[in-house]
Structures are given as C-alpha cells and as structure tokens.
Sequence to fold (428 residues):
Amino acid sequence: MQGIQQPHVNSEFDVIVVGASLAGCTAARLYALQGLRLALIEQQREPVAFKHLCTHFIQASATPTLKRLGLDRLIEEAGGLRNSVDIWTRYGWTGDVPPLDADGQPVYGYSIRRLRLDPILRELVALTPGVTLLAGCSVRGLIRDAEAITGVEIGGQHSGALRARLVVAGDGRNSPSAELAGVRPKSAPNCRVGALRAYRDVPLRRGNCSQMWFHGDDVGYVFPNEQGVTVIAYMPHSDKLPAFRADAAAALEASVTALPDAPDLSRAQPLGEPLLIKDYPNLWRPAVARGMALAGDALMSVDPLWGVGCGFAFQTAHWLVDATAPDLLAGRPVAAALKHYARTVARRLGGHRFLINDFARRRRFNAIERLMFSAAAKDAHMSRHLHAFGARLIGPMGFLAPGALLRAAWVNLRSSGGAPSASLHASS
Fold:
C-alpha cells in the first residue's frame, strides 16, 4: 500500500478525502484514475475494518459506479450476488420482476456483506496510483483560507498539516469533519427500531432473491449474500423495542418466522450475535459547506429500512468527482463545480429523502402506496415499475407519474381487488 511513512506530514494534494468507507474510497479512486493526487485519511488502522450496521444490499442504481471503479468484478470474485427482490404486502407478492435497461436486459445491484466489501474496496483504492492512504489517522482541525476550508490537521499514526484545493468529508453519519466545520445535521424522526443477524443454511421459499415483507406496522427481510450466508432483519415499530432488548435473537427469529412464506430458521446456523438498532433518526447535511464537499453518510444517512445507504454513498461520490475533476485538472476554481454537485444532489436525492422521512413517521401505507403496491401484486408491468423505483433507477416523480398512477388504478379496477395474477412470475 502507498502511504506517507514519516511520522510528521506536511504535504499538498489536489484533494483530501476524509473517511475510507464507501463514499470516501469511491471519491479517492475516481479522482486518482483521472490523474489527481489524493490523501485518503482513515481513523481505522486495520485494513479489515468494516461498517457493522448495514443490510448489505447495494441498489442497482449504483452498478454503473461499481463498474467504473472496477469493483463489480471483485465483488463477483468474492462471491457477491447479483441481487433482486420480491416484496410481500397484504395484497400478495410482487414477484421477482427486475427492472430492465434500454436493451431489455435485467438490471441488478449486488449483495455482499460489508465485512468482505469494505476490505476489498479499501485495498483496491490503496493500490491505485496517486492515492496516499493515511490509516490510523483522524482529523483534529481544519485549515481555512478566509471562510473556505483548504486543508486539515491530522493526528494519530501520522501527524501534521495537509492542504488541498478540495476537501471531501466522507467520514460517516456523525462526520467529525462536518462538526469541526460547524455544520449541524438536520433530522427527522424514525418510528422503527431493528435487529439483524447473519445465518448459514437458511432454506428460502421464494427462490434466491432477497425478500421483503411489509407486515402490519413492521418490515422483515431476508438477504442472501456471498458464500451461502443469509442476513435476516426485522424492523418493528418502536413500541416493540422492549421485547427485542430482552432477547434480540429470540424476538428476531420469532418475528421473521411468523411472516408468510418465511424461511425455517430452526436448523439455521447463526453467525455472531444479533445487531440491535435502537434509535436511528434520519440525518442530512448540505452537500457543500464552506468549500468542503460532503458525500455518503456524511451527506445523508436515512432509515435503513429502504437499504439505500450503500448505493447513495457510491453515487454521491461519483457525482462529486464528475462535477469537480475537470476544474481540478485544469487548475480552475471549483466553486461553480461544487454548486453543480449540490444541485445534482438536491435534484436526484431530495425526493427520495422526502418520501423516506415521511414513511419513517408512519406505521402503515398511505393511499398512493396502497394503490401502487396492490397493482404491483397483480400486474407484471406495475411490479417492474415498483422495482425500478425500489432500485432507485427512477425518482419519485417518475414513480408517481400520471401514466403510472392511471395504470395502477386501471389494474386494481380490472381485478376488483382480486388475488395476484397467477401469470405474474411467468410474465416476468
């Protein structure tokens, strides 16, 4: 791995990226592939460090970024699965009906546990020419030129001052960099808690796709992952937290096995202890603050129920690089490029965040959600449309376009609230 070996660092770079998780590593590698010099600062010393709180589902919207990174091939070599999902509501199953690309081919994301993904990505980035990885370091202060942030003071394994034309905060939900810059997150409440655990030898009843249940006030999941490991998760309303606090493993397994067509966990082998999510409000910050760009969870960390965190981390870093790299390479100021990045984030994520925040406050579907999910359980076209939105390939405006709403209403009127079509799977 590349790295600055001396104990004191005083260097200049084109870009400084704080945080070597998904967003930070993505930004660092994509900048470096264009010929820019990067300092990548990571507080964890161990290269095998990984994020624990994650449902391991990368949305299909992020697949172009994975391919540009060269990460898609490495994920598949590590056993990661091309993912899709089948969703149950009280109207029935939507079917495993993946969205299609312009050529009519199925579009997919990936499922791989973070304990494998994070080290693979970090090694890929560390071996990228132009990247200097400073592991075991943390940002102790920010360097400013007037109001603009132009560098960082680091301590830990290495210490000193680093300066650059652009500083990127990709340092997670609590973002120490944003705190040092005086950027406080906005927040919205989340009425659900959660528990998840990995297992081996889980017999699935709906094929090898991921499965998701909207069951009353609660949401359950089954995520097949690499090497025969399945991640089981359940997100109940917070009024059920006492039962999960008392015995998270028992509550998780009892809740999941009570779901329609649920896997039988009686002979499944648990891997480690369950992870309990007790309080997880939605947080978000501006995309640019005092000349510093934010990406990934430092920018937006919302309800894990929808599994968008990994995909949005990859994508926001990609958008940032596309917006700013041309000016960095040409030696031009990046202020206008950062405004373009902020507009891209607002345009492409603002609607998703609004809907996620709204559902996090509620126990049940609203009228439009009932319309769309009931139609998706009866009609393959509507199911594919729903899955395109779930994969974040289209935004809320596309999902709720007048034509889609009219078709959903027509499907429901035609079926008169009947059972899901038996041809749904065959037509997919």
About this structure: The longest helix spans residues 335-360. Residues 1-8, 417-428 have pLDDT under 50 and may be disordered. The longest strand covers residues 8-18.
